[in-house]
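Pipeline run #58 for the internal structure catalog. This entry was flagged by the ingest filter as a single-chain record with no existing model, so it goes straight to prediction. Upstream metadata was stripped on purpose; only the residue string is passed forward. Reviewer on rotation: M.T. Logging verbosity set to normal.
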Amino acid sequence: MQYSANQAAEATGKNVATITRAIKSGKLSATKDTSGAWQIDAAELSRVYPLRKQSLQNLTMQNDANPTQRDKFTEANTLREELAALRERDKLKDTLLENYVAQMADLKEDRDKWRQQATNLLANQEAELVVPAPVKRRRWWPF
């Protein structure tokens, strides 16, 4: 919804001069229409100056009382797009989950192979540990 400078002043409870001063200083964004009047977007106006409760109620009543077919169509299209995006996201998550499960299975298999190799090496070391025969003591004098 677009407000003129007068309508914006009424909606916010500010003076028209305050609204136009905010536009000229760049604090409030607005465009001029073909007749030279300022057109201020409702969202932009509420960003800078809070709207009065009464003007908010009028705005919601106007929007609620007059839903158009185009609004319903755009809402349906938006919902379809969101649903498609969510389905795509769900497929991506399923693919990632499958990849993680496969990767985990590979890691478990590698772990088991390394464990088996370590136990084989330990068994070989124990078998190689042979107690050496006692060395016969030699005498210092050979007679």
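catalog note: DSSP finds five helices and three strands in the chain.
catalog note: The chain has a mean pLDDT of 84.
status: ready for reviewer M.T.
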